[in-house]
Amino acid sequence: MEQRTYNQYCATARTLDLVGERWTLLLIRELLTGPKRFGDLQASLRGLGTGLLAARLKHLEREGLAHKITLPPPARTPAYALTEAGEELGPPILELARWGLKWAMGERRETETFHPGWAVLGLRACFDDAAAAGLRAVYEFRIDDEVFHARIDDGTIEALHGPAQHPDATITISQEAFLRLTGQGLTLTEAIETGAASTSGDSEALHRLKGLFRLPPSHPRKADRPAS
Amino acid sequence: MEQRTYNQYCATARTLDLVGERWTLLLIRELLTGPKRFGDLQASLRGLGTGLLAARLKHLEREGLAHKITLPPPARTPAYALTEAGEELGPPILELARWGLKWAMGERRETETFHPGWAVLGLRACFDDAAAAGLRAVYEFRIDDEVFHARIDDGTIEALHGPAQHPDATITISQEAFLRLTGQGLTLTEAIETGAASTSGDSEALHRLKGLFRLPPSHPRKADRPAS
DNA sequence: CGGCATCCATTTTGATACTG
DNA sequence: CAGTATCAAAATGGATGCCG
After folding, report:
1. By the 8 A CB rule, do B150 and B158 touch?
2. What is the 8-class DSSP label of residue B223?
3. Distance, Å, A52 CA → D7 C1'
4. Exposure of B110 by Cβ count < 10 A (0-12 exposed, 13-18 middle, 19+ buried)?
5. How far apart are CA B10 and CA A178, in angstroms?
6. Which of A69, B58, B98, B222 has the greatest number of beta carbons closer than 10 A?
7. Distance B75 CA to D18 C1' (A)
8. pLDDT tens across B69-103, in order?
C-alpha cells in the first residue's frame, strides 16, 4: 500500500508528504501541550474516527515524529508524545496560528468546538519574546476544569498541560473568558475587573504577565465580511 | 456543496480549513515567487489535474487569498496572484520548508520532480537576516532557462520570478548545482570553482552574498535512515 | 492556451459496530 | 479505554471532450 506523495524534491512538499494529510497537523497541535492518551485525542478532535486516529498515530510513529509511551505510575496507561522532530513542528504550526489569528478568526460559530488547550497555544503564538527579556516566572492557569502552566524564561515560553511544580502566580479563569484573551482583544486586567478571572501569587509576576502577549491586528479577508 | 471544516474555534484549525486541503499550500508556494498562469501552475504541480486546479484557484479567490489578474501588455494573458492575505502565508510556508530542510530532505529520489523556483524559496528559508544587516543589493539568478531575482534590503529578502531591473550582480548556474546549494551543503564558492556556476557584476556584492544563507543542520529522522 | 464539464477507477474519510 | 473491522460517502487522479 504505497502512500501518496507529491513527488517533488522540495522541502515544503516533503514536509507536507509527512504531515499534510487531514488531521495530522491538528494531532500534532494536541501533542504540543504534552503527551495525550488515545481517548483524549479523539475527544479533542471531533469528527476523527478511531480508525483514522489509530492510522495517523501509527504513521507518526513510523516516521519518527511521535512515539507511544507509558505514563508514569500510578497512571501506567499508554499515551503518545512527540519526538524532537515532532516538537520542532511547533514553529510552523504557531506560524499558521498567527496567520489564522490575523485573517481567519472572528466570532466563534455555533457549531465549533473549543478546548482551552487551543487558547494556550494561542498564547504561545502571541508571545512577545522582547517583552519577556529578563523575566523568569512560572504561571499556572486554571481554566474551568483544565490546568496548564507556562514557564517563561528570558524571552522563551513553554506551555504545557498539567499543574506547575512551583508557580509564581496562578490565574483562575472561565473558559469563556480565556478564549477571548487570544480570540478577541480582551485584556487580563479587564477580565479580572469584570470578575471573569481571579489571580493569586506574586503580584510583580502578575503585573509582568499582562504585557507578554501581543495580538496581531485582526484583519478579516473580504470573503469573511458579509456581502453588502 | 458544503465545504468540509474541522469546526474548531482554533486559529490553526481555521487556517487549515482554508489552506489545508491537498495541493492548496503548494499552489500558494508557486505564487509566492510571483503571478503564474494556469498552465505554468499545472506544469509545476504534476498530478494535479485541470479540474482540481481550477477548483482550488476558485476557492482561493472566493476566500480572498488570490485573485485573477491580466498580465500587462504585450502578454495580456490571464494569471493568478496572491492578495495580501495570501502573501502572508509566506512565513508559515517557509517555516514548513525549514523543518523539511532539517528533517526530511536527503537525496533526491528518482521519481521526484524539481523546479528552480523551489530552491529559490529554499534560499528565502535559509536567509540570515542578521548577516544581511546594512546590505542593499539586487541579485539575478539564471538557472538553466529560468530567471529569478532577489532583492536584499537591510535584513529583508524578496525573491521573485523574472529578471531584475538593475541587478548589482548576476549568477548563472545549472539547475543541478543550484539545488545543491539549498538541498546539500554546497557553497557558492565551491560551485564557482568547479565550473558549475559563473558570476558577473559587483564583486563586493558577490562576496557578501556568500554569507547570507545558513542551512539548518540536516538531521534525518530515525525512520529515514536505512534499517541496520 | 485557458478553463470548465463529465465519466470512472482508486483512495481517503467518516461513522459505527465490535473485540480484548 | 484502546484499538480493529467494516461499510458508505466523499475527494482525488486521469482521461477526454468542448468551447472561446
Report:
1. yes
2. G
3. 14
4. exposed
5. 13
6. B98
7. 25
8. 998 877 789 999 999 999 999 999 999 999 999 99
